UniProtKB/TrEMBL annotation:
The lineage of its organism: Bacteria, Bacillati, Actinomycetota, Actinomycetes, Propionibacteriales. It holds the Pfam family Acetyltransf_1. Residues 18-176 form the N-acetyltransferase domain. InterPro entries: Acyl_CoA_acyltransferase, GNAT_dom. This is Ribosomal protein S18 acetylase RimI-like enzyme. It comes from the Bacteria.
Length: 177
């Protein structure tokens, strides 16, 4: 099992009433549960990282909720290159990362709404945005291509990301203000 959403291009979208908003502390346990359902690990450790993300002004955590229940999570962060980073480190800038929607709520356009909101927030700070994904994750790649992302490289590293050479693609999209 890859942990990615099942790739079903052209699948019918169900309409639901979704609220997309900035995350607050009360959302973080549910966000951590969503993350570890895909990546594994302890919820409390993941929650602690999410608390740290909320405290940083160069990061934006966003959630999607249906009937008051958090069903999706996503983050945008600002990456800065360090002099000690390897030469193939991804460029500095804002990155969309961590898009996760609960399996029972996929195919409702929630990932699109979370991505749209993160791009809106980033547009207030930058003229472009980056994203990287595993090349096998067709669902997320198609989603991001629909927002104008294009491939930059497949030969890159990103701090603290367990990327295996040749398995991921770095994409970039211009942002209109």
């Amino acid at each position: 099992m890859s942990g990615f959403a099942e790739y079903r291009p052209g699948a019918g979208r169900q309409v639901v009433d979704v609220v997309v908003r900035a995350a607050v502390d009360a959302d973080l346990t549910r966000c951590a549960e969503l993350i570890v359902s895909r990546t594994g690990g302890p919820v409390d450790v993941r929650r602690a990282r999410l608390v740290a993300d909320l405290e940083r002004p160069d990061r934006y955590t966003v959630v999607a909720e249906i009937d008051g229940e958090v069903v999706g999570y996503a983050l945008v962060l600002r990456h800065q290159i360090s002099p000690t980073d390897p030469p193939n480190t991804a460029p500095g800038g804002y990155y969309l990362i961590g898009l996760i929607v609960a399996p029972e709520h996929r195919r409702h356009g929630i990932g699109e709404l979370l991505t749209q909101e993160r791009i809106r927030w980033t547009a207030e700070r930058a003229d472009e945005v980056y994203y990287f994904a595993n090349v096998a994750n067709g669902a997320t790649l198609d989603l991001h291509l629909s927002f104008g992302f294009t491939e930059v490289t497949r030969d890159f590293s990103f701090p603290n990301a367990p990327l295996k050479p040749g398995t991921c693609v770095l994409l970039r999209a211009p942002i209109s203000r």
